[in-house]
């Protein structure tokens, strides 16, 4: 995988600047391209941000993903459709395979209460969408029927209001099978929200 990516990117600006044509094995890679941090890539990302092609990848990035900023300022990462596919096949699919094998009772036709939200997207000067890299209602539109929340509710862009609707329809489903989120912190926040709103939610369900 490493060598195929290096070969694929050899004629990009980044590949030429960092001697990708001289890398034929893993040892070459670690010698020619030592460990880096974000500052190493920042100037290349700026070029992509402004619309330049063939900077770090041959194909145009699908989007610029925004990091959470836990280590300081938020950073932008060019993201490809290949990455999304790899993440699903080698990540999500493996997770569900193991979950169903080890906990067969979860393989039911029950709905999930998934806490995820429609982000406020922006656009780079080069025309790329800028937003979160994790799954969103838009990127999951083909599987929204798996969730207890009605599809229309995913148009809500205010997180507290959307969270309330997730809780309402999740609790309304007596046969709810699973609680799901991209980050465990979203589940924690939802339960904190539930502590203060459960009487109102019960009245609405009644």
Q: Could you characterize what this model shows?
A:
Helices cover 43% and strands 10% of the residues. It has seven helices and six strands, in the order H-H-H-H-E-E-H-E-E-E-H-E-H. It has helices spanning 2-8, 13-17, 26-32, 38-49, 81-102, 159-172, 184-205; strands at 63-66, 76-79, 112-115, 122-123, 129-131, 178-181. It has a four-stranded mixed sheet. Helix 6 (159-172) packs across helix 7. 14% of the residues are buried. The model has no long low-confidence stretch (mean pLDDT 92).
List the strand order in the largest sheet.
2-1-5-4
Strand content: 5-15%
Mean pLDDT metric: 92
Number of extended strands: 6
Assign an overall shape: elongated
Largest sheet: 4 strands, mixed
Structural class computed from helices and strand pairing: alpha/beta
User: In DSSP terms, counting alpha (H) and pi (I) runs of 4 or more, how many helices?
Assistant: 7
Which residues form runs of ≥5 with pLDDT under 50?
A: none
Quaternary state reads: single chain
Span between termini = 55 Å
Helicity level = 40-55%
CA radius of gyration is 21 Å
What's the helix-strand series? HHHHEEHEEEHEH
What is shown here, in short?
With 206 residues, the chain is of the alpha/beta class. The chain has helices at residues 2-8, 13-17, 26-32, 38-49, 81-102, 159-172, 184-205, and strands spanning 63-66, 76-79, 112-115, 122-123, 129-131, 178-181.
Question: Keyphrases for this structure?
Answer:
206 residues; alpha/beta; two-stranded parallel sheet; 7 helices
């Amino acid at each position: 995988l490493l060598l195929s990516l290096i070969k694929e990117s050899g004629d990009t600006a980044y590949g030429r600047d960092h001697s990708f044509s001289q890398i034929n094995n893993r040892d070459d890679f670690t010698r020619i391209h030592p460990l880096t941090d974000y500052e190493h890539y920042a100037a290349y990302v700026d070029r992509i941000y402004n619309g330049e092609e063939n900077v770090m990848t041959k194909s145009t990035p699908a989007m610029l993903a925004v990091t959470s900023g836990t280590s300081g300022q938020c950073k932008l990462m060019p993201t490809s459709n290949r990455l999304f596919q790899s993440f699903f096949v080698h990540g999500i699919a493996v997770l569900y395979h193991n979950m169903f094998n080890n906990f067969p009772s979860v393989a039911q036709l029950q709905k999930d209460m998934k806490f995820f939200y429609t982000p406020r997207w922006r656009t780079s000067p080069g025309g790329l969408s800028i937003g979160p890299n994790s799954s969103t209602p838009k990127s999951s539109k083909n599987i929204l029927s798996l969730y207890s929340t009605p599809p229309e509710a995913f148009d809500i862009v205010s997180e507290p209001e959307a969270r309330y609707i997730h809780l309402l329809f999740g609790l309304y489903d007596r046969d709810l099978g699973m609680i799901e989120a991209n980050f465990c912190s979203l589940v924690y926040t939802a339960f904190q929200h539930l502590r203060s709103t459960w009487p109102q939610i019960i009245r609405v369900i009644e």
